[in-house]
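Person: Please comment on this record:
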Amino acid sequence: MAVTIHPGRMQTRRWLHPSSWLALGLLVSPSLAHAYVGPGAGFAFAGSLAVMVAAFALAVGTILLWPITFVIRLVRVGNPYKHAQTRRVVVIGLDGMDPGITTRFLREGRLPHLQKLAEAGVFRPLDTSNPSMSPVAWSTFATGVDPSRHGIYDFITRDPCTYAPMLSSTDIKNAERVLNIGKYVIPLEKPKIKLLQKSQAFWKTLGEKHIPSIIQRVPITFPPVPFRGILLSGMCVPDLRGSQGTFSFFSTANKDGQAAFTGGEQTVLRRKGNVIRSRIVGPDNGMVKGGPRMTLPFTLTVGEEGARLEIEGCEPIDLTLRTYSGWVNLSFKAGPGVAVAGIAKFYLLSVKPEVSLYMTPIHIDPESPAMPISHPEVYAVYLAKRFGPFATLGLAEDTWALNERVIDEGAFFDQAMAFCEEREKMLFDALDHTKEGLVTTVFDTTDRVQHMFYRYLDPTHPANVGKESTAYADAIQRVYSHMDKVVGRVMEQVGPDTLVLVMSDHGFTNFRRGVNLNTWLRNEGYLTLLEGRELSGDWFEYVDWSRTRAFALGLTGMFINRKGREKSGIVAEGEEYRSLVKEICAKLEALVDPQSNIRAVRRAVAAFEVFDGPYRLDSPDILVGYEGGFRNSWTCATGSVTDTVFEDNTKSWSGDHCVDPAIVPGVLFANRPLVVENPHIADVPFSILSMFGHKPPKHMQGRMLFAEKGQVGTVRGPLDPHSLPQSGSAPGARIFPEVGDA
């Protein structure tokens, strides 16, 4: 799944790490830091020279020391596969793959390789986490525990000291010791970048048992945590501007001299004949006091069917209409001998009557990584040297540019598939280098395309108004079929002795109507605005906390303004708190959409009734499980109070899964039968450790899914269509709700 907050608002704290200054001997610790307010991931820019030197040293050291380390391992550890039922496990994560849609395509013969996989083993729905969101579910996959034990409940949460939004997964702290030299600010220590996900990833446990792993693009792995294995970070890696994805749009089209569109970085172009001059806006310059933005000048020379783009420091690029450029290297000069490297793609939308040029968010250049996006750090460099530049942004597919209609469905689909193909190369390279151990690669394409193309499955969707609604009616099927072919290639390469799992973190449903819980809370008297205010802007702009008992932020949760936890909490712990939570839950479950007279909330759950882990106090106090067809509105997600509770969702983002988890399970394919009928995502890491012959740690909550030695698997074959979860009650909530009756 993908975060649905406007990426331009998801700012972060950033750092410069100019290792090129090492040669000048100016710094003891070559780190430059700069912080700014907002929920984001963070930066520590690093020059490629030091990374490449480290890569060479690591490679040489590994080769020279291998005979010694091999003997030591045999003596101290013995054979780590002594009790294993398999010596290799391959996990293909297809984010958001839905069991209902999958079953329909299987019955139509569109997924032959997944059909063979199911016939060799099993295909079942995979119960997801609560909340049913990618950061939560993939964190449960990584750790084998529920959110109250790994601490991730959403993409964002509120800072209880300020009520301001903050990224749930990462904490960044500036260097405290700095040196001021004229206009420059030189930190004397490295910034601290910390993953907030608690517990321990199961691949770290495997590493401790001397079983190698290659982990690629699993969400919530930024910054990478060191372990005995290899990892490339996934969802929540920021772009070079420190956001979760800020695109740029340059156009001569304007409204009274202002940009004609919203979202991203908008620039109005001025044309002189066939020549246009402008600039690309990059990251803030943390080396200079005040942190001014770094920019790159460019010249665009327009022709009849294309244009030539000349960016300072780059070779000229010939752009063809409605075709992506390759990755373009962008180098921003921060100071003497210090450059910050990024990569982006350009897409020329039109040259007449208006000139319009789209640029993807500026990704961190994997060949010269601006911060540690892999473990070891040289892994990203290796992949870039091996295959060329690739997308590094956690939310790489630019959903917001399509939501704002800056690009169209064709441009988005081409971008998504190009990023998917990059991921495929990484997967098969990992398979080539892992004859024993674990390979896990997550593909986001299934999730992103369903989010943005679900409206094509529902002719009455509000998002279809004013948009074409037939050209990409097969987009979801095309992606499922493409991933089926990838699975087929994997099966051919690995053979029957390898345990192969194809899984998703959650499924999908329709998103027709948005619900602003903050507006509902205001109407019910639980949230109060300052005197004279009826509405509130983003991030609770005019909320009176001294009189507010509850508020909503993000995609699935509602918080109680608790004494002792929130800065201005007014609800006392104990009976007052519990009674209020139960009262609000009951009212939410009775909430009816006046347009359709349908209940919007399937189940509202008190967190204290379902969570008992050490991080349960970080949870939203109420988990709102919507019926299919409903979800938190876009304004509710950013903490706004609007004039209506319900509104049509007219964004291209037309499918979702932030609903009651019972109606959006994921999928699980395996080439071996199961011993349980209803697998849960927490069972997967537990089972992988067990299949390698090692007892899972006691803190893990899963079960063994596969038959152990001497035991017979009882759950086999493809999914029975009638075992699918019941859909929500909203019309069109699930496009394929009961495939067995189709």
Observations:
- The domain at 81-152+197-236+418-509+665-728 is CATH 3.40.720.10 (Alkaline Phosphatase, subunit A).
- The chain has a mean pLDDT of 89.
- The first helix runs from residue 48 to 76.
- The longest strand covers residues 275-284.
